[in-house]
Design a protein that fits this description.
The protein has about 250 residues and is of the alpha/beta class. About 45% of the residues lie in helices and about 15% in strands. It has a seven-stranded parallel sheet, with helices on both faces. Helix 1 (about 15-25) crosses helix 7 (about 215-225), helix 3 (about 60-75) packs parallel to helix 4 and helix 4 (about 100-125) packs parallel to helix 5. It binds NADP nicotinamide-adenine-dinucleotide phosphate. NADP nicotinamide-adenine-dinucleotide phosphate (NAP) binds near residues 58, 87, 88 and 182.
């Protein structure tokens, strides 16, 4: 029980990597509040473990971010771990990107992450807790058709490092995880045609030294380490979980 008595928020905890982290944290003794827009999905995950509860809402909206924090404060009185996991990835060349794609990616991948962090910080500082941001291998290993996403994730990695420096004296650790290609729904919700999406996926899989996609649990393993006391001297780090994709 590496997280016994801890309280965690996992944004995007209803699916993919966020779901895997929420379930793992709950198994390790944490109370986990998952956040996402689809209430039915969140309900299903919460039913898996009585340590998991949910708040349904869109975290690009300021009032939802405030409501999440008020709920946690009222229910538990403290917050130890914030997992800024919710993200979205438009897959288009710059010749086809619309400003709406930019707004959608940056309002979730960047603005909501910053807003969640700002609002969580009073409780996180009080608990001398930990923040984990989900970046991507793409932040440092760029690929065509992903400019909005890799731009957003580059910001996430730089926030992580600066916040780690700023919050060190308060006893708060800030780290990021940079997954490679992990088999989740994010691969189904691009604006590519089915055929182009398949080509895009195949191109990526063939470039991975492990020659396979990763599993959400393989990311959750690292998220568990980073949130636990075993990582007591780890801050400002970006952990690759990418089958050596980013090693080249
Ligand atoms: N899978 C990969 O290959 C991969 C690689 C590198 C990095 N990542 C990063 O890993 C993180 C998790 O992605 P994933 O692969 O697990 O994808 P996913 O299954 O699509 O998860 C994204 C989650 O974010 C939630 N979400 C989206 N918009 C939201 C909003 N406005 N407000 C609240 N929640 C919102 C979604 O729930 P609702 O739709 O219900 O809101 C969903 O649960 C992301 O930051 C992604 O960029 C993934």
């Amino acid at each position: 029980m590496k997280l016994d008595g801890k309280v965690a928020i996992v944004t995007g905890g209803g699916s993919g990597i966020g779901k895997a982290i929420a379930v793992r944290y709950a198994k390790e003794g944490a109370h986990v509040v998952i956040v996402g827009r689809r209430e039915a999905v969140l309900k299903e995950i919460a039913a898996l473990d009585d340590k998991i509860s949910y708040v349904a809402g869109d975290i690009t909206k300021d009032e939802v971010v405030e409501h999440v924090m008020e709920t946690v404060k009222e229910k538990y009185g403290h917050l130890d771990i914030l997992i800024n996991n919710a993200g979205w990835c438009p897959v288009q060349p710059i010749t086809e990107i619309t400003i709406e794609d930019y707004d959608k990616a940056f309002s979730l991948d960047v603005r909501a992450l910053v807003n969640m962090t700002i609002h969580a910080l009073p409780m996180i500082i009080e608990a001398k807790g930990s923040i984990i941001n989900l970046s991507s291998v793409g932040a440092t290993h760029r690929a065509a058709n992903l400019s909005m996403y890799v731009g957003a994730k580059a910001a996430v990695e730089n926030f992580t490092r600066v916040w780690a420096i700023e919050l060190a004296e308060k006893g708060v650790r800030v780290n990021a995880i940079a997954p490679g290609a992990i088999r989740t729904d994010i691969w189904n919700v691009t604006n590519l045609s089915l055929e182009d999406a398949k080509k895009h996926e195949e191109g990526i899989a063939s470039s991975i030294p492990f020659k396979r996609f990763g599993k959400p649990d393989e990311v959750a393993n690292v998220a568990l380490f980073l949130a636990s006391d075993e990582a007591s001297y780890v801050s400002g780090s970006v952990y690759a979980v990418d089958g050596a994709q980013g090693a080249a």
